[in-house]
Design goal:
Blueprint: E1 2-3, E2 10-11, H1 13-20, H2 23-35, H3 54-65, H4 79-93, H5 108-119, E3 125-130, H6 135-142, E4 146-151, H7 162-168, E5 173-176
Parallel strand pairs: 3-4, 3-5
Antiparallel strand pairs: 1-2
Helix pairs in contact: 5-6
Amino acid sequence: MTQSTIPGEAVSLEELQAVAGDGTKLRYALMEMAAKIPDAIALGRGDPDLDTPEYVIEAAKAAVADGRADKPTLVAGLPALREAVARKLREDNNIPVDADGVIITNGGQEAIFLIMQALLDPGDEILVPDPRYTSYDQAIAAAGGVMVTVPTEPEDDFDLLPSAVEAAITPKTKALLIVSPN
Protein backbone atom coordinates (compact mmCIF):
# COMPACT_ATOMS: atom_id res chain seq x y z
CA MET A 1 0.00 0.00 0.00
CA THR A 2 1.41 3.40 -0.95
CA GLN A 3 0.90 6.43 1.22
CA SER A 4 -1.41 9.13 0.00
CA THR A 5 -0.66 12.83 0.27
CA ILE A 6 -4.01 13.17 2.01
CA PRO A 7 -3.54 13.16 5.79
CA GLY A 8 -5.09 10.07 7.34
CA GLU A 9 -5.72 8.42 3.96
CA ALA A 10 -3.92 5.60 2.22
CA VAL A 11 -4.31 4.76 -1.44
CA SER A 12 -3.58 1.32 -2.70
CA LEU A 13 -1.68 1.11 -5.94
CA GLU A 14 -3.74 -1.99 -6.70
CA GLU A 15 -6.97 0.00 -6.25
CA LEU A 16 -5.84 2.60 -8.76
CA GLN A 17 -4.58 -0.06 -11.19
CA ALA A 18 -7.93 -1.84 -10.94
CA VAL A 19 -9.68 1.16 -12.45
CA ALA A 20 -6.79 2.40 -14.64
CA GLY A 21 -8.16 0.69 -17.75
CA ASP A 22 -11.44 2.54 -17.38
CA GLY A 23 -10.79 6.24 -17.82
CA THR A 24 -14.13 7.25 -16.33
CA LYS A 25 -13.69 5.16 -13.18
CA LEU A 26 -10.12 6.35 -12.78
CA ARG A 27 -11.15 9.97 -13.20
CA TYR A 28 -13.88 9.64 -10.57
CA ALA A 29 -11.54 7.81 -8.19
CA LEU A 30 -8.96 10.57 -8.53
CA MET A 31 -11.62 13.28 -8.18
CA GLU A 32 -12.87 11.64 -5.00
CA MET A 33 -9.34 11.58 -3.61
CA ALA A 34 -8.69 15.19 -4.60
CA ALA A 35 -11.93 16.36 -2.98
CA LYS A 36 -10.46 15.34 0.38
CA ILE A 37 -7.41 17.59 -0.02
CA PRO A 38 -7.83 20.85 1.89
CA ASP A 39 -7.88 23.92 -0.36
CA ALA A 40 -7.86 21.83 -3.55
CA ILE A 41 -9.12 23.74 -6.58
CA ALA A 42 -11.29 21.74 -8.97
CA LEU A 43 -10.56 22.58 -12.60
CA GLY A 44 -13.22 20.21 -13.94
CA ARG A 45 -16.75 21.00 -14.93
CA GLY A 46 -18.20 24.31 -13.84
CA ASP A 47 -20.97 23.53 -11.42
CA PRO A 48 -22.77 26.65 -10.20
CA ASP A 49 -22.29 27.58 -6.58
CA LEU A 50 -25.45 29.70 -6.44
CA ASP A 51 -28.97 28.69 -5.56
CA THR A 52 -31.47 28.65 -8.42
CA PRO A 53 -33.39 31.96 -8.34
CA GLU A 54 -37.01 31.63 -7.26
CA TYR A 55 -38.32 33.17 -10.50
CA VAL A 56 -36.53 30.44 -12.49
CA ILE A 57 -38.05 27.73 -10.29
CA GLU A 58 -41.52 29.25 -10.74
CA ALA A 59 -41.08 29.56 -14.51
CA ALA A 60 -40.02 25.89 -14.70
CA LYS A 61 -43.06 24.84 -12.66
CA ALA A 62 -45.34 26.88 -14.92
CA ALA A 63 -43.81 25.31 -18.04
CA VAL A 64 -44.46 21.82 -16.66
CA ALA A 65 -48.01 22.72 -15.59
CA ASP A 66 -48.79 24.30 -18.99
CA GLY A 67 -47.49 21.29 -20.94
CA ARG A 68 -44.54 23.20 -22.41
CA ALA A 69 -41.88 20.92 -20.90
CA ASP A 70 -42.98 17.51 -22.10
CA LYS A 71 -41.38 17.45 -25.56
CA PRO A 72 -38.14 18.47 -27.21
CA THR A 73 -37.80 22.08 -28.33
CA LEU A 74 -36.50 23.39 -31.61
CA VAL A 75 -32.79 22.71 -32.09
CA ALA A 76 -31.90 26.43 -31.96
CA GLY A 77 -34.10 27.03 -28.90
CA LEU A 78 -37.56 28.40 -28.24
CA PRO A 79 -38.33 31.42 -30.45
CA ALA A 80 -39.55 33.54 -27.52
CA LEU A 81 -36.37 32.80 -25.55
CA ARG A 82 -34.17 33.57 -28.54
CA GLU A 83 -35.99 36.89 -29.03
CA ALA A 84 -35.63 37.75 -25.33
CA VAL A 85 -31.88 37.05 -25.46
CA ALA A 86 -31.50 39.12 -28.64
CA ARG A 87 -33.45 42.01 -27.06
CA LYS A 88 -31.26 41.86 -23.94
CA LEU A 89 -28.08 41.90 -26.05
CA ARG A 90 -29.35 44.87 -28.11
CA GLU A 91 -30.66 46.93 -25.19
CA ASP A 92 -28.17 46.16 -22.41
CA ASN A 93 -25.00 45.33 -24.33
CA ASN A 94 -25.42 47.40 -27.52
CA ILE A 95 -24.89 44.28 -29.65
CA PRO A 96 -26.92 44.47 -32.88
CA VAL A 97 -28.45 41.00 -33.15
CA ASP A 98 -31.86 39.58 -33.92
CA ALA A 99 -33.37 36.27 -32.81
CA ASP A 100 -32.07 34.52 -35.95
CA GLY A 101 -28.54 35.24 -34.71
CA VAL A 102 -29.12 33.53 -31.34
CA ILE A 103 -28.84 29.81 -30.60
CA ILE A 104 -29.78 28.43 -27.19
CA THR A 105 -27.70 25.42 -26.14
CA ASN A 106 -27.96 22.98 -23.26
CA GLY A 107 -24.69 24.25 -21.84
CA GLY A 108 -21.18 25.39 -22.53
CA GLN A 109 -19.93 22.07 -23.91
CA GLU A 110 -22.61 21.98 -26.59
CA ALA A 111 -21.96 25.63 -27.43
CA ILE A 112 -18.20 25.09 -27.81
CA PHE A 113 -18.80 21.96 -29.92
CA LEU A 114 -21.15 23.83 -32.27
CA ILE A 115 -18.79 26.80 -32.52
CA MET A 116 -15.87 24.53 -33.44
CA GLN A 117 -17.98 22.75 -36.09
CA ALA A 118 -18.95 26.08 -37.65
CA LEU A 119 -15.55 27.76 -37.37
CA LEU A 120 -12.85 25.19 -38.08
CA ASP A 121 -11.78 23.54 -41.28
CA PRO A 122 -9.55 20.44 -41.12
CA GLY A 123 -6.04 21.45 -40.08
CA ASP A 124 -7.00 24.87 -38.71
CA GLU A 125 -5.28 25.71 -35.46
CA ILE A 126 -7.05 27.22 -32.50
CA LEU A 127 -5.16 28.70 -29.57
CA VAL A 128 -6.42 27.60 -26.15
CA PRO A 129 -5.13 28.97 -22.83
CA ASP A 130 -3.84 26.22 -20.55
CA PRO A 131 -4.85 25.03 -18.00
CA ARG A 132 -8.08 24.41 -19.84
CA TYR A 133 -11.32 22.51 -19.65
CA THR A 134 -10.56 19.15 -21.26
CA SER A 135 -13.77 19.02 -23.31
CA TYR A 136 -12.23 21.62 -25.63
CA ASP A 137 -9.79 18.95 -26.85
CA GLN A 138 -12.57 16.70 -28.13
CA ALA A 139 -14.64 19.53 -29.63
CA ILE A 140 -11.66 20.82 -31.59
CA ALA A 141 -10.60 17.33 -32.72
CA ALA A 142 -14.15 16.45 -33.82
CA ALA A 143 -14.11 19.49 -36.11
CA GLY A 144 -10.76 18.43 -37.60
CA GLY A 145 -8.96 21.29 -35.89
CA VAL A 146 -5.63 21.32 -34.12
CA MET A 147 -5.48 22.65 -30.58
CA VAL A 148 -2.41 24.71 -29.73
CA THR A 149 -2.17 25.33 -26.01
CA VAL A 150 -0.92 28.67 -24.75
CA PRO A 151 0.56 28.30 -21.27
CA THR A 152 -0.51 30.51 -18.39
CA GLU A 153 1.63 30.51 -15.29
CA PRO A 154 0.95 30.77 -11.54
CA GLU A 155 3.52 33.55 -11.17
CA ASP A 156 1.44 35.59 -13.67
CA ASP A 157 -1.82 34.79 -11.80
CA PHE A 158 -2.67 32.55 -14.77
CA ASP A 159 -3.20 35.65 -16.92
CA LEU A 160 -2.96 35.09 -20.66
CA LEU A 161 0.06 37.11 -21.73
CA PRO A 162 0.12 38.75 -25.18
CA SER A 163 3.69 37.52 -25.70
CA ALA A 164 2.59 33.90 -25.14
CA VAL A 165 -0.27 34.31 -27.62
CA GLU A 166 2.01 35.91 -30.21
CA ALA A 167 4.53 33.08 -29.84
CA ALA A 168 1.83 30.48 -30.54
CA ILE A 169 0.42 32.08 -33.70
CA THR A 170 1.23 30.36 -37.00
CA PRO A 171 -0.13 30.79 -40.53
CA LYS A 172 -2.67 28.04 -39.70
CA THR A 173 -4.05 29.85 -36.63
CA LYS A 174 -7.76 30.56 -37.07
CA ALA A 175 -8.84 31.74 -33.63
CA LEU A 176 -8.08 32.17 -29.95
CA LEU A 177 -10.60 30.50 -27.65
CA ILE A 178 -11.42 32.68 -24.65
CA VAL A 179 -14.07 31.43 -22.25
CA SER A 180 -14.98 33.57 -19.30
CA PRO A 181 -14.66 32.81 -16.52
CA ASN A 182 -11.59 30.75 -17.32
